[in-house]
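User: Show me sequence and structure for the first protein, then do the same for the second.

Assistant: Starting with the first protein.
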Amino acid sequence: MAAPTCRAPRVWVQFSRKRVGSLLTTVSKPFCSAAAASRPLDAQRLAERLRAQKQEQKTKRVPVPTNPVQRRVQELVQFTKQLQRVHPNVLAKALSRGIVHQDSDLVVINKPYGLPVHGGPGVQLCISDVLPILAKMLHGHKAEPLHLCHRLDKETTGVMVLARDKEVAHQVQELFRTRQVAKKYWAITVHVPVPSAGVVDIPITEKEVQGQQQHHKMALTPSYRMDSGKMVRVRTSRNAHVAVTQYQVLSSTLSSALLELQPVTGVKHQLRVHLSFGLDCPILGDHKYSDWNRLAPQKLSVGTLKKLGLPQSKARHIPLHLHARQLILPALGSRREELSLVCKLPRYFVHSLSRLGLKMPSQDQNGDQEAGRLGAQ
């Protein structure tokens, strides 16, 4: 009886020319031989080598540019690196490292910059997408997905509350809706508000802007206007929302300030609109609301640009400096006391404070500066 013959089909495996050195690698192996089956395929070895090279590239430090402007731009890009294009498991792991509080009802995270909460046009990955993965990481494979209790803008960082079940989520959402949650934000502004503390109580609505580029923005709709030197009451728009913001200057220089903001209401982009159009103090890095008619990078003074180490042409890299610093939740469920949740500032925020000569309150200074120092290592 003739010995069985075995065919040796060709397997074509395509790899990147940059990483492997050859666009196509041909592997020819007899599959009928037990010895051949026990040996790893060339493709497997190449894949392992590729993974090793990829890991090695990750561990390599990016060279620091000698040009100070390029170095500053690299800092900002690195500090504000978005997490939308990573694998969902990687994003969930990053969020788990930012947990500031966890109990039987709630999980509170420090939301990163540039990460949307909900999906939408052009959004590849958002926080709501990875809540089932995050729940399994924290509470096991049988855990119910976490639930959003409120939202923050994509560019805003800071305290974000998640609930472990729907009932608790609805209770927290009701606390937000009925304004029982105390909220404190920190922002760096381009100008200094006068007076140094006060309340902005101006309704807000969404309007279409007829400028160089047609777009929509939230806008102020004051109840009064000046007419021939007299104050005249204006009929309120049906679409206007009551918007009230309390503010206080924590630190200031001639051209910039660190503000603590307490929004009484929760209208879309309320803080940004009240600061920019109500107080003429736009938030640093607010490229949307610094100018009403244009959608362009924020215009900054020569002195501010010099302190930040950037020319105006690179101002587009400056991120929005708005941080949800603290939430105070009233008693809920089995918890009989209020819960104060505080998130440390992101690294780019701490660096900007230092460059602009702004100081944090003494009780907060050590923790946030340590966070910035560790993050920069």
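Switching to the second protein now.
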Amino acid sequence: MEAAEGQAEGAGPASFLDKFQTQRYTGGFNPESWEQEFDKIPMFMKKSPAEIDPEQNPDLACLQSIIFDEDRSPEDQANTYKNEGNEYFKEKNYKKAVISYTEGLKKKCSDQDLNAVLYTNRAATQFYLGNYRSALSDVIAARKLKPNHLKAIIRGALCHLELKNFPEAMAWCEEGLRIDSKEKKLVETRAKADRLKRAEQRDVRKAKLKEKKEQSQKEVLLTAIKERNIKLFLEACKEEDEISDGLAEMSLNGLNSDSAMGTKVYLDDNGNLNWPVLFLYPEYGQTDFISAFHEDCRFIDHILVMFAELPPWDSERKYHPSNLELYFEDEAREEMYQLNTENTLLQVLQHQRYFVKAGTPTFLVLVKLSPFSKNYFFGKKVHRLK
């Protein structure tokens, strides 16, 4: 921090020591609490109180009134606040330092160099508090008063660096180096800003290439889905006539997956689609998830694996592969379609009334002729696929 140009006047320590000696020889001195007694004397205080109570600390209140006497010139008062802020800064009490520098600036003294120092010191304090934009505003204000103020330029370059404004940081460094070509901090900051700028540009290029590649892959995937006449349900559609059977309405947005596993449909090396598929068991509120269901694989192939052993939630031991029926729901018409478990996934997805929602085909699994199934389908129209 920049040192004060003058010293604030105040009472000498002799009166306080005389008072302490008087207490000692008149019986007021307590040897067991001498440290506390000393800490009440301003010149021996290790830390000043946050708020000064005239009754508790009359000597300190007296000193404060002398230091910040409004009868003193604005320049003297501003300088005193600057010195106070510097002391707080040394103690790393940055919040109080900000207050002191701000009070100094409020004096609106005519010494523009002093005001530039107050702005620069407050900027340094704000910087250590992590308030980089406030710090940058202060150094800009300082440079308006003193354009070649090197400390303000250095602090401004550091602020831009923290804000990831790398070109601006380098520009500020160049300005400072025209004043002092050997200023170490500016040389180091310019080198760091240049290195980070290059890294940022490289990362941007990589991100764009990755985005372009992913977009290309999505378009290839969408083309494969269109060629198979598979329809994607668009979340924005509310009415049945808004759900187009035509391929032109298909969108990449329909490939977004809401599955808990975060998996998505993909094309394998042989050009076949593999879908994340969700099975729902409404009777027990259970689910099964297959992350990669090959489009040419039959439903029965997965059912036999999934129920090779009866699940623990099947308390009645009735979920045998031969007892199970699979359905999908036509939400627009509120109708159900029963699958033939010998069908492949592709055959079902190509059905004119099947729409893939959120990128994840979903099917219901129920036990045939069970009381729950009869009640579940009561009043609903059910179609059976061949």
